[in-house]
Amino acid sequence: MYNINKVREDFPILQREVYGKPLVYLDNAATTQKPLCVLDAMREEYLNVNANVHRGVHYLSQQATDLHEAAREKVRQFINARKTEEIVFTRGTTEAINLVAASFCESQMQPGDEVLVTDMEHHSNIVSWQLQAMKRGIVVKHIPITDDGRLVCCDGIATNGTGCQAGIATYLTERTRLVSIAHVSNVLGTINPVKDIIREAHAHGIPVLVDGAQSAPHMKIDVQDLDCDFFAFSGHKMYGPTGIGVLYGKEEWLEKLPPYQGGGEMIDKVTWERTTFERLPFKFEAGTPDYVATHGLATAIDYMERIGLDNIEAHEQELTRYCMEQLQTIEGMHIYGPLSPLGTVPSVKDAVVSFNVGDIHHLDMGTLLDRLGIAVRTGHHCAQPLMDRLGISGTVRASFALYNTKEEIDTLVAGIRRVAQMF
């Protein structure tokens, strides 16, 4: 493991107070705080290396380009992609999914063709496809979930550990062209058995996009082992800056897809008659990239790797276990997503605990916890179809990062008890 107190020193914001109370930041699924090394690296680049990347012959441009492309290589190593050509920089997971939705539907789908998602998806993995449905007449279908927040096709994984028990074949048709699925639910914390889902989809000749926004910060990702065709994640959820994300795509798929946007950077030659496009990955990176943010992302990955992804995962799993154990002692507590006996954590749940207490509205609970210095997220968490499935308007969500402690969970639990006494 690692020295949590030493790690917390890297995040000065954790030392501040809110309403005269020490900040307890438990909103990490929305965004994480940034270590000093990330902020320093970005400031240093703006101060001493700032120049537009690619094509510049002067020293600063070449130095900035080297940092930008070194960041691409760092990301490649982080997710074990085969080539840097498979690493496309985007503004975040949302843009990465929209890129695939637009380019894939334009070139690979006809009216009536289907994309398969799930009931637990973030809006970014629903609305992106619905926009294409309105434009192109494709059909968006979804795999249902069980009452405890597991995919219906995979509800055997908690007991037999073998992955999809029934499989997704029930939901695949001759018109299914793509499966797009969250690796980890941002509401339930459910870890979906994506490797099994990918294997079965591929057996039917169907590619798979994985939304890794909530998995990349918490566990080792190996896209070659998963064998996913696309994988998307965001920098700001893993201690990097906002406005930078990654789309991994297998080279053969990225070669097939048309550009998402047009402009500078992504062209080879432009004439009035026609335009030819740059090689991968630049074909999908129109305009000036956020080259300072890519350096910040690479620095954040370095930071995580110094601590160790296995250490981070073990620490956050222990926090999740402890939080669920303590929350279940509160009268009226309802936790959403996979549960397990006290003292253990489900092997299919990670770093997110969503709950409600009795008839207390989630907004009231979150507002009053905030007055105690406790930052949690309330509402539908950009997952309204999931809320409809659960029969609720929203939840309170506590989510963990590598710098959180059991003492902060004790503060959360005490705060919930105090708020509950007011109702």
Give the overall shape, derived from the CA principal axes: globular
Helical residue percent band: 25-40%
What is the rounded distance between the termini? Answer: 40 Å
Secondary structure: number of strands: 17
Detail the poorly predicted runs.
156-163
Q: Which strand order does the major sheet show? A: 4-10-9-8-7-5-6
Cα gyration radius (Å): 22 Å
Secondary-structure blueprint:
Layout: H1 4-8, E1 17-18, E2 21-22, E3 24-25, H2 36-48, H3 59-79, E4 87-90, H4 93-108, E5 114-118, H5 127-136, E6 139-143, H6 157-160, E7 176-182, H7 194-203, E8 208-211, H8 223-226, E9 230-234, E10 245-249, H9 251-256, E11 267-270, E12 275-277, H10 291-307, H11 309-327, E13 333-336, E14 352-357, H12 362-371, E15 374-375, E16 377-379, H13 384-390, E17 395-399, H14 406-420
Parallel strand pairs: 3-15, 5-6, 5-7, 7-8, 8-9
Antiparallel strand pairs: 1-2, 4-10, 9-10, 11-12, 13-14, 14-17, 16-17
Helix pairs in contact: 2-10, 3-10, 4-5, 11-14
